[in-house]
């Protein structure tokens, strides 16, 4: 296989350039002549016709010969001649393309000068200068076309030499010229023929390592090996899917390794896969290793190392280092490796690597036909297609990847003639890579270029959708239909879909906007882009080919290769990547690059804070993509707005006069300022904007004329946000109506948000002619203080999401459009949904309940300064002030004002009783959130009737509800999440514990509520997560909640002896600031418990004499005496993290720390200690955190194992001493690699 691949690669470099002889070149020549003028001179017109005729001959004669030459690579004597010809043709094309770009720049410059004219004298000078430049560039373009014509003439002379006897030339129409714009059926994705393999590997994964085993490791390694494309990754994915459903492992971690074996990079990918977050930027590998080990400690995991192979032998030391963070995991953990080499499998620790067997003939044919036919209905053709499919399958060497890739091409045209033409490409079907290459040849020419560019990025790279699309557009790879005015991004989106459907891309399972590429596909991309794309990774010592056009380079190689890069004559792309966040790119380096590489189309430098963008950037007249994050634009903004061909600009700051960039596609936000160059009119001529646009600072507009910006003409925008940023939230300004009137959106708008609007009514494009927003799916209205009604919103028939918040004058409600599935209603004080019977109940209990609430707060919640109840009080006062924010001084007196606030809130309801509303909801609703509004229980119950699709219900700060009946919850037969917060008068919730679909329950700041469980709860509740705060649950309220995995309780004074022995599935348990809690009964039965937090419970005495917690990973406590009890009960065999919170310990109590010899991390948070206890005894300690310990003066001696120390928000003197190199505190931490010290 390897020999075939190498031989084929030689010729693929030739035929891969076939896109030059496609209609792309013809269209390009037409474009060049169009740029020379509408009526070119007769001699140029004749030359144009002659050249186009020759190009047509090349397309029909030479292009098929290129495909034949690939199949007959060994026999052809003309390969060197053809290679030289294509190289000359390519260079001639690129030179003409560059000059055409300069002509286009001059055209755009002329257009911009007409839009933003200077003074008359300057204008006349500019016109003269522009004419001269234009004439000069057109002469250059004519020369380039002459050179291209000369090369085409040479090509025509050798066409005759390439005719080879006994080889048929297939019709060029076999290659589709158009993308499939929509499909009727999808290719199958079923895993075929691997059931026995999966079962065998799953059995191996489930084998436990006996405690008495001589193997000291807590994990074992299993490996699958086989040739590339044989289905190793698919089988591993099949296995992962099965074990996830079986819930055999706590974590299933998927990591792509590939050719470059870099331990740190693999660790980072493990982190991201395991914890679903970006890996933090550790300054050293040791810091990353220790933190990863800490997070994996005690976990039983399956780690998949996919495609682990390397051209260089992997050392035993590298393997030991790679697996070091796994050493503290739970016994029975497994590592599953897929690799192309049996030797690699053994080096990685697999005792008996499993060779992946070939599919038998029948299974392989099923795989091919399943992917080729999918669910298509083909009737009488099935027998004929299956017959041809058998012959194709016989030539694919039983390679599953080749089968899937070829099948995707077969699926596009389900007719026997096309399938036969694929079969007859016998030379290309005889090996896996050949089959993939054949599929590449059948891609449209524009897609071939797009695919080849992907070789720039390393194997295993995750391609972001928007980034890829923007790159293709900037490179000029998007081929638009001359008869259809379509945005390039829409065409590029179809390209993505085509590459996915053809198996060139795979969609990321976690992020549908990210794509990956199989390693063999990446190999193919490298072969077909050879000579044009070049990648430099860490440690590379490679010579850059002189013809290179596209460069990818990592940060640490940038300076070394800088001079060589600047020498590249054809360079049009430079992409630089780094994981170092504090690197500053120097102005002198950029200046050299911009001065010497003037053909650049793409400058993409991420993760940098650029020192300063040099003015030489103005020389990059063909630049279409610029990504340079910088805070220093004062010198360069006048240069950046002269880059008229820019489609994408990311600088981290808004530049002035952005309206000059009339080619711009991406402008995520625009802030209107008072300075020149930041007016709203800058947007008027940016007609190519695509996607989303947020406009801030609308309060800076002084009159309606300034608001005219032709948004309705920007037909490719689908998301808009309009924001006024008034300092006072109660300002009413009639001019805002005229401003919003001028912001009429384009008719295809899908998402619209209006924030801070102070007009009293909607504009005419909503009130009178809402055709402009008839396709609207999502609408958000926030801080619109003047609106009293949502007039005609109910006519938006496609609306699915509606959010209304802080509309203090809104007083009427209309039925929602029938398709609305999500409603968020918040802080609308004048909008009342109440009935008189409910008001009578509230009146009868008002005085007693308010007194009860205030007593509850005084006795419990006021002591909890950091509790979220403060947020609830803030909400109450905010509502009283109709949206005004509360200062810190007011916030500090909230509990004192609580009684007054509640009384005024209730008084307000009776003042508004002259206008009651019914809450009409859409029957399709699946998520409903009501916050800080007036709605009573009968209206709520009536509104919720019939909402059979509702899965999420949130009620926050509703003080007019006293009861939620079981009939209400029973009617919501699909409810999964219930969140009730700040409902001060709520006394009863019925049926919560027996609901058959409810999985998550949150009840916070409901001081009148007493929670109890019924006898039926034991057999019916499926609750997995419960949060209780500032309410009154009974000690036995958790009875029967056997499925519970997470329990959080805070500020519940009624809890004394909490029984948790039956919560066998519990993983996280948090109990904070429950002043009367004495004990947790039955903690010994919680075998799955990993996290325990018992803080601020001053009466909590001890754990039971039989309690021990062998699985515990993290512990938060405020008294070390509790720690001593747990140690005596053998509860710390897996403890990795200890947080001592709000503690004030004696020296005797601190002695207990000596027993924690395996502790990885210790945190001192808000402790009153003046000095920390000795920590040298903690031999495994890796991380120390000191947070808000305001009395602290000195540090203890720390063990050499510590890799990270964080000191934050402590007293100023102590913080300074930790940075003072002459102070003893500094000497105690100077050896630690990673120090994070901040005041």
Automatic annotation (TrEMBL):
Alphabetical UniProt keywords? Leucine-rich repeat, Plant defense
Give the superkingdom in one word: Eukaryota
According to the entry, every stretch annotated as the NB-ARC domain falls at 215-369
A Pfam short name: NB-ARC
List GO BP terms, alphabetically: defense response
- Record-level Gene Ontology MF annotations: ADP binding
Q: Does the keyword Cell division apply?
A: no
- Annotated Disease resistance protein winged helix domain ranges read 456-525
Task: Describe the location of the R13L1/DRL21-like LRR repeat region domain by residue ranges.
Answer: 680-805
* InterPro entries the record matches: LRR_dom_sf, LRR_R13L1-DRL21, NB-ARC, P-loop_NTPase, WH-like_DNA-bd_sf, WHD_DRP
Q: Is the NADP keyword given for this protein?
A: no
Name of the molecule in the record: NB-ARC domain-containing protein
Taxonomic lineage is: Eukaryota, Viridiplantae, Streptophyta, Embryophyta, Tracheophyta
